Amino acid sequence: xxxxxxxxxxxxxxxxxxxxxxxxxxxxxxxxxxxxxxxxxxxxxxxxxxxxxxxxxxxxxxxxxxxxxxxxxxxxxxxxxxxxxxxxxxxxxxxxxxxxxxxxxxxxxxxxxxxxxxxxxxxxxxxxxxxxxxxxxxxxxxxxxxxxxxxxxxxxxxxxxxxxxxxxxxxxxxxxxxxxxxxxxxxxxxxxxxxxxxxxxxxxxxxxxxxxxxxxxxxxxxxxxxxxxxxxxxxxxxxxxxxxxxxxxxxxxxxxxxxxxxxxxxxxxxxxxxxxxxxxxxxxxxxxxxxxxxxxxxxxxxxxxxxxxxxxxxxxxxxxxxxxxxxxxxxxxxxxxxxxxxxxxxxxxxxxxxxxxxxxxxxxxxxxxxxxxxxxxxxxxxxxxxxxxxxxxxxxxxxxxxxxxxxxxxxx
Length: 412
Ligand SMILES: Nc1nc2c(c(=O)[nH]1)N[C@H]1C(S)=C(S)[C@@H](COP(=O)(O)O)O[C@H]1N2
Ligand SMILES: [Mo]
Known about the structure:
Blueprint: H1 4-13, H2 17-24, E1 60-64, E2 67-70, E3 88-89, E4 104-108, E5 116-119, H3 120-126, E6 130-137, E7 160-169, H4 170-177, E8 185-190, E9 207-209, H5 210-213, E10 219-224, E11 227-228, E12 238-240, E13 253-259, E14 274-276, E15 291-293, E16 300-305, E17 310-312, E18 318-325, E19 331-337, E20 345-346, E21 348-349, E22 359-365, E23 371-381, E24 405-411
Parallel strand pairs: 4-13, 17-24
Antiparallel strand pairs: 1-2, 2-3, 4-5, 6-7, 7-10, 8-9, 8-13, 10-11, 10-12, 14-15, 16-18, 18-22, 19-20, 19-23, 21-22, 23-24
The chain binds ligand MTE and molybdenum atom.
The ligand Nc1nc2c(c(=O)[nH]1)N[C@H]1C(S)=C(S)[C@@H](COP(=O)(O)O)O[C@H]1N2 binds near residues 136, 203, 233 and 234.
């Protein structure tokens, strides 16, 4: 198990600056000037002293260990989220070294007909490839609006993205191994390590009901937008489940277990990724046994243009655009309001390319007089679910906030 402090000590013992340079993947140009006994800050406990690998400096970093970084709404304007702008939610420490030639995926568990291990090459050659646009959203996206506040990463609106994922159908792989009729759930294990460094603890090990695992859109993916998945998003292999909290989509995937009961891995039990089985008043303490696993995520949308704070001239019209997504079949309408929700107008809306892809909406807005406005957007899905205007169902862990997105606009 990787341990940064130990590794550092080893380095300092063989105190060869070229060695340290190799660790960073680049020479320390003025290394010989570094005073004896002083070590490069890159060897301290800061996880990523040179920025997040493969990620844009524009991401908002909430936390460095584990890494949690979100994407501002206006940076999510592309129909598919670029890899370097896709949010990162780590519960532990990513694997230090990934060798695609020796990486394997094992399928086992009490409800598997047999245990089977695939190399990456076998996965790629044995099963049909699919590319699907699938939205991933952290269950805690929007937590920062909770009152009373909920502990955990204070995500604003940016723990969401939609990418074109390439890989195989999870169902095809499970069927190849054989699923017993008593199967209830699948669980995943990844090659990241617990923050404590304890090799006996998992950072996270969640999963989905077997029916969800068998959906056509449930994937084991190795590529994102036509490139290798970025290291921080689970290179070289991850699960992708649209419509469920992204915590189900295991990164650095090395094992899937087919269970005859609800998977009981790390962060499946207790209060993690659960909501009160029955709605509670804000601030209520809820016992573990009254907390239920979050499955389908609610309908939601995001205005990605203009950036909040935009100023336009009187008589100028304002184009707006963004995305809407749902765990239902599709989003059927998106509406906007400029009068704090009194009246709503319909936006143009694109078809979804496949289930769980986010859809693009747009409109052109005229404002009646100079002044301060807010543009609100709300999506309605094919199950007739609509976004609320304010925080829905408060819950102790701060999940499932799908309140409509608001931007401020000044007409001057
Ligand atoms: N192995 C592993 N898988 C994981 C996690 C993790 O920490 N380790 N985080 C989960 C959570 S809580 C979320 S929201 C998504 C985030 O995916 P991303 O970092 O690619 O955006 O990955 C999920 N899969
Ligand atoms: Mo998450």
